[in-house]
Design goal:
membrane; 1 helix; Immunoglobulin-like; elongated; five-stranded mixed β-sheet; alpha/beta; single chain; 125 residues; binds copper (II) ion; 11 strands
């Protein structure tokens, strides 16, 4: 085996390790919480090339609103869909779009862009 063959194998192994890490590694998910004022909680998710934070944790039993702050101009993220809640909002009509989240019971509400490419979730607990 010459040096270039060894080099090729090493590069290959590094690539394989990277791919495994990329798909199966535990990536730290940015998670946000809500602000509670007068028994109402609000959380803000910035929409810009994705959702930031992509996970929002809400307190059970406190009426909740999640504000989507639209800063993206691509068609991909123009809609946000909460399938479980029957919500499909056009985010391009105004800068901030508010979605009411039921908090009467604990649970997770997934949301996605209109094409189901970007995902996030709202966790009530
Ligand atoms: Cu999309």
């Amino acid at each position: 085996m010459n040096i270039s063959q060894i080099f090729t194998i090493v590069i290959g192994l590094i690539l394989i390790a990277f791919i495994i890490w990329w798909f199966f590694g535990k990536h730290k998910e940015a998670s946000g919480t809500s602000t509670i004022v007068n028994n109402e909680q609000t959380a803000t998710i910035v929409v810009n090339g994705g959702y930031s934070p992509s996970t929002v944790v809400l307190k059970k039993g406190v009426p909740a609103q999640v504000n989507f702050d639209m800063r993206d101009s691509t068609a991909c993220l123009s809609h946000v869909v909460f399938e479980q809640l029957g919500v499909n909002e056009d985010l391009t009509k105004q800068k901030i779009t508010t979605v009411n989240i039921p908090t009467d019971k604990a649970g997770t509400y997934n949301f996605a862009c209109g094409m189901d490419m970007f995902h996030g979730k709202v966790v009530v607990k």
